[in-house]
Fold:
Amino acid sequence: MAQFSSDVLNPGVRRREVFGWAMYDFANSGYTTVVITAVFAAYFVGGVAQGADWGPLAWTVALSISYAIVMLTMPSLGAWADLRGAKKRLLMLFTAGCVLSTAALAWVQPGGVALAMLLIVVSNTFYSYGESLTAAFLPELARTEALGKVSGWGWGFGYIGGMLTLGVCLAYVMSASARGEAAARFVPVTLLITAAIYGLAACVTFALLRERATGVLAPGEGGGVLAALQRLGTTFRAARRYRDFIWLLACTVAYQGGVAVAITLAAIYAEQVIGFVQQETMTLIFVLNLAAAAGAFACGHLQDRIGHKLTLGLTLIGWIATCVIAALATTKGQFWWAASIAGLCMGSSQSAGRAMVGLLAPAPRLAEFFGLWSFATRLASIVGPLGYGLITWATGGNQRVAIAATAMLFVLGLLALVPIDLRRGRDAAAQPT
Structure:
């Protein structure tokens, strides 16, 4: 925390509070790393679905359902949280839901596709809610000129949490494999480990992070769901005023669709196309997280120096290169290059995107605007992985074509990035709402 001096934090914000906020990134990254990327994704296709051709599609359908739920509900939940000053209360509730449903995945057995899909829908929905709400605290903590640095620090710290969780799981898997245990026995234990680390680390957040918002209810205004929807409707009617934010959402839908492919299907691609075994895949994802942490830390400082827009654009070019290399890779060594570039770009692009939202969001409506950002990221998480699954299915299982097609999402992201004027968008956010 030594890199955070008082000039990068808002008045009244203490370093320990930023640490508490970053600990939530640390806590929830284990869920995406172990459940969505490295362990359960591949186990679902090869173990639960027993290697069926429709396995990757079933996995992406389950994720898409959860993302659709988040799309339809998170903006209004964010508006309600702003009205009530209840971001922290909701964050605690959603965290408990994700931790419990992640632990419940340990009871999924081979062939239990319906139960696995249900629990993935539930756990990933709660995870997504939590990710949106914790991001809404960022502009309350960091000064405008330091949003990139603080966002990058949090995201980088998150990847350290993902590596810790995956490292503990990898140690257990290697020990279990040495004893001759099958995946159906050791995968459930990794899910319990993930849930425990998530819950314990999140407690640090709840202990240190303050809820500064007091609510913005007008006299006589109700604070229920209807009021939240009315407030959200006002934002949509004023969309022209926030046109730079709207362009950012369009950019997010495009490039985050590609990022979602990397997060949800990297392990499946590595094992089914390149020939990795599970221990190699876990090691690969561990190193990917290491690269992502480095990328997020470096990007956080870089974007405050050269600009958020240019930084994000550079990472999207890196993502295009990643897709091309992965599609052409025929050896494990070649795929390692793609994974390393993906790691650096993953932390950078996600951190830059979150900081840009914080820059363009009006102060009284942080949870609402970050809820709209969640709408965009979850739409992207449907478009990217589901499109990948459909292309794989339509080409008779050719995942190389699917990963090559993913590069087009990053090209579209670059095109949507061009019209964004951050100064104009910041001026619009500063006007009374």
Summary: Residues 83 and 217 are 6 Å apart (CA to CA). Confidence is low (pLDDT under 50) at residues 218-224. DSSP finds 16 helices and no strands in the chain.
